[in-house]
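#struct-help
A.M.: can someone run this one for me? Single chain, 744 residues.
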Amino acid sequence: MAGIRKTAKGAKRPERWVRSTCPYCGVGCGVEVEVKKGEVARIRGDKSHPANFGKLCPKPAGLPEAIKHPDRLTQPLKRKADGEMERVSWDDALGEVAGKLKGTLDLHGPEAAAFYISGQLLTEDYYVAGKLAKGYLGTANVDSNSRLCMSSAVAGYKGAFGSDGPPTAYSDIGYAECIVLWGSNAADCHPITYGRIKQRKKDPDVSVIVVDPRKTATAEIADLHLPVKPGTDLALANAMLRVILDEDLLDNRFIEHHTHGFGEAAKVAREWTPRRAARACGLETGDIVQAARKLGEAKAALIFYTMGVNQSTTGTLKNRAIINLCLATGNVGRPGAGPFSLTGQPNAMGGREVGGLANSLPGYRTADDPQHRRQVEEAWGLDPGNIPEAWGLPATEMFRALDDGDVKFLWVAATNPAASFPDLARTRRALRREGAFVVVQDAYPTETTRLADLVLPAAGWGEKAGTMTNSERRVSIVEKVVEPPGEARADWEIFAAVAAEMGFGKDFAWENSSEVYDEYVELTRGTLVEVTGLSHERLLRGPVQWPAPDAFSRVERPSGRVQYREPEEEHPGTHRLYTNKKFNTPDGRARFEPTPHSELHEPPGEEYPLTLSNGRVKNQWHTMTRTGRSEKLMRGLEDGPFVEMHPEAAGEAGVRDGEEARVVSARGSFSARVVVTEGIEPGTIFAPFHWGDLWAGDGSLNNTTHDATDPVSRQPELKGAAVRVEPVHRRETGEQETQREVTR
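D.P.: on it. Structure tokens below:
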């Protein structure tokens, strides 16, 4: 897409506009990139992209500043004996990585090597990292930061439907009569999707329910806001199912013919009367009944959920409880209906597809299935047994193993665990541990690069080509529009170069990312996530939802029969899953699950009386690695971190609005400016997690969080730390008194 535009003086200047995809949240908005003189000059929305139709939130506008920011990593850096970093050549850096990897494997075995990668990588980057680690190095220890945000959603979908993957599409918003946002502040975290919900809400027959301890901007449009106490979602979901049972709002035909396990789930739900749940959740009994009725009486109901549900030691059960509500009311596989997990990162879905989690392989295969392992080994030209049978280390266990000395080599790519990971004291201690070798691959300096033994400069967004998959399974192209700065390289190229250094060059000898994608595509043939009908060339014409098989691929599986499309017919992609009510389970039925309630792992008590929740602000992203380099996005954030408190909690803590306060847990603390508001449940406080040590003197929220995880998904309970709040001046005075006593 190119054109000629006149300047103010009437002269002509060349302009180039390129279609691409936004690199922030999982909405996957299409963008158009203006390129001038070899630089990204401006970003605007792509009106033809079905995820956003030209609308954008503020974050993409800051990309031009961030891309050309002087604070870019442009050359490999190695830590010297004195602790300082020195520039080295790529040959030296690649030799160092390959040598350390080989030494680790030879001395300690593949279990001692680990890769911690990211939902901000492109699908091609993910694929090459997994092929190297799981296939050629033989380590299953490959996990993604998606473990921190989406693994409970993965476990929920697989448990209920037999396979990962949201069955819904954004267009379902236009058909839904009841829209529930559960643990989601979409107005800040997924603004474009929120805009579509807000537009749909203009229909007087449409109701919106928000379940959140805070009265967020999202809750402002709700017909019903349920300010649930953290950790009590299961009590609420069971009580809603109880009302649906008692008032005969069930879709009995759907339950009878297309599900099993309803009786066991209903038995647990019957234990939770609305009155009992109201006491547990801090809600009004009538509001619980009203929410259940709105859901059960709607012709089509859509339930969005995200981190407020997933980041919990019972996150998988919470996902299953939400899916139970959809199954009980028949809200699956039809327009405007279904469970819809909103993905946090731009390519968390793509990572799930290519095997980016510790128990997975490309094409939604699992490492514990012998047939799946053999299929991938054959595709990669490996002997049987090369791919490890056992699960690798999920992220929290990976860093514990690094801290304990069991992991000797860690490669971190496109993520910042020294700011984003729970229980930061342990995490940072692990990254500093003597005897471990830590490689960090990123585009910018971060809290984690400061702890690395070797830093590899990566090309950022707009500087490499590839694909991403958004929350509705839509695969979009990401274009290379400018050259990376200095010696920075695409992530997949770095992984491939190390593979070549270790003697695997012929199996990693792609000319470009399009060839990488073609290899991955073939591995999806016949799988649930098939994309054999896609290529970079096709995606340049527009994004496509999977499954999208090629002309000769299986498109339906009724009664075990296989059907094929005509060779000349291009598959349009699959808008909505399970429209035939056939699920990916052995008997083709969806599965209910009993979802008993349990308390937070770390409930509040006398010493730590409050529960800390956390989330995002609209203009920032994760640990500010990229958005923090945009002056445009940093405006209005000069005051740094803040913590929202109910007036009652602020009074008991002795802090006032606008004051600096310290949030303290059993593990550590951080400082933040107090914002006193009636819009939060009294026993809960809220703080954004963006600020780390690079952006605030004492702003790392994860100093306070714990790393206890869900037993199924292994996702940590990032939204459930027990804390207290105290005035900063009180602690400073106490420290001064202690110092005087020591001096005497």
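A.M.: thanks! The radius of gyration is 25 Å.
D.P.: also worth noting: The CA atoms of residues 45 and 171 lie 18 Å apart.
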